[in-house]
Amino acid sequence: MLVAASAFAQPDAARKGPSEACFSAYEGAQTSTRAGRLLRARSELAACAETCPPVLRADCAKWQRELEVTLPRIAIQATAAGGGPVVGLSVEVDGVVVAPGEIDVDPGEHVVRVSAPGMSSAERRIVVATGHRGTESFQLEPAADAPRPPAAPPRSPGASRASVGPYVLGGFGAGAVVAAGVLSAIGWSDFDAMRSTCAPGAGGPGCAADRVGAVETKWQIAGVLAGAGVLALGGAVLWRLIGDRPTSSARVGLGGVYVVFD
C-alpha cells in the first residue's frame, strides 16, 4: 500500500506510468470493499489488472483472490408442486433478472423472486453474510388462472357397448369355429366306422339311410358353423379397427345363421 501511495504521490512530470483508469480502479476497489459493495469491487479489481503497472497489479490480484472467498454465493432452485421440474423458470434478485443457478451477491438483504409460465410466482426476503454459501429452494403452485386441459367428452351408451362388442363377437366366432371342427371330426369318425362295417366294399349289406343321413347332417351343420365363425371373427377384427364408436346395424348371414352388428 505504501508503494502504491508513493506511485501516485510523485510530481505530475514523473507520473507517466499509472493512468487515470488505473488510479480510479485501484482506489475504487478498496472503497467498494469497505462499503460492502463486493460485486463492484470485483469489477474494479479486474480493471486494475488490465490498466495498472505490475507493482499495482500484484496488489489487485491478491485482493481479488481474497474477495472471491468472502463474496456471498447462493444457489436458487425451484420445483413444481409434487416435486416435478419447472419449465421456463425466471429468477429476479432485487428486481434484476438473473440466470437460474448459482449467483454472487453483496452481503446484506436481498429480495429473490421466481416465476414460470402457468405457475404462481414466489418471493422471499433473505439476508446473507460475508462468505455465505447456501441454497434457496422454492416450490411453485399452478396459477389460479392457468388453462385447464379440456374435459373428455361423455361417452354415449353405444360407444360403451362398442368397447366390449368386438370381444363378444370374437368369442362367438371362435366358439363357432371350434364347434364346427368338433362336429366335423365326429362326422368323419362315423363315416370311417360305416366304411369299415356296412359299406359295400367291406362286404356288408350297405349302410342304413338314417346313418348316412346323420353323417351328412353333421357335416352340413359343421360347414354352417365354420362359415358363421369366420364371418364373426372377421367382423370382430373390423369392428375393433374402426374404433369404439356406435355404428348402424348390419346383418351378415350364411346358411340361415345371422350375425348382427349393433
Question: Can you describe this structure?
Answer:
The protein is α+β, with helices and mostly antiparallel strands. The protein folds into 3 domains: 2-70, no CATH class; 73-140, Immunoglobulin-like, CATH 2.60.40.1120; 158-261. The protein has 6 helices and 9 strands. The chain has helices at residues 2-8, 20-34, 38-51, 54-70, 157-197, 209-242; strands at residues 73-80, 90-93, 96-98, 101-104, 108-115, 122-128, 133-140, 250-254, 257-261. It has a 4-stranded antiparallel sheet, with no helix packed on it. The protein has a 3-stranded mixed sheet with strand order 4-1-7, with no helix packed on it. A two-stranded antiparallel ribbon has the order 8-9. Strand 5 (108-115) and strand 6 (122-128) form a beta hairpin. It starts with a helix and ends with a strand. 16% of the residues are buried.
List the helices and strands and how they pair.
Elements: H1 2-8, H2 20-34, H3 38-51, H4 54-70, E1 73-80, E2 90-93, E3 96-98, E4 101-104, E5 108-115, E6 122-128, E7 133-140, H5 157-197, H6 209-242, E8 250-254, E9 257-261
Parallel strand pairs: 1-7
Antiparallel strand pairs: 1-4, 2-3, 2-5, 5-6, 8-9
Helix pairs in contact: 2-3, 3-4, 5-6
Total domains: 3
The count of helical stretches stands at 6
Bin the strand percentage. Answer: 15-25%
Strand order of the biggest β-sheet: 3-2-5-6
Beginning-to-end CA distance, first to last residue: 98 Å
Low-confidence stretches: 1-17, 246-250
Tell me about the largest β-sheet.
4 strands, antiparallel
Mean pLDDT: 78
Helix proportion: 40-55%
Shape: rod-shaped
The count of β-strands is: 9
Rg over CA atoms:
46 Å
The SS-based structural class is alpha+beta
User: What order do the helices and strands follow?
Assistant: HHHHEEEEEEEHHEE
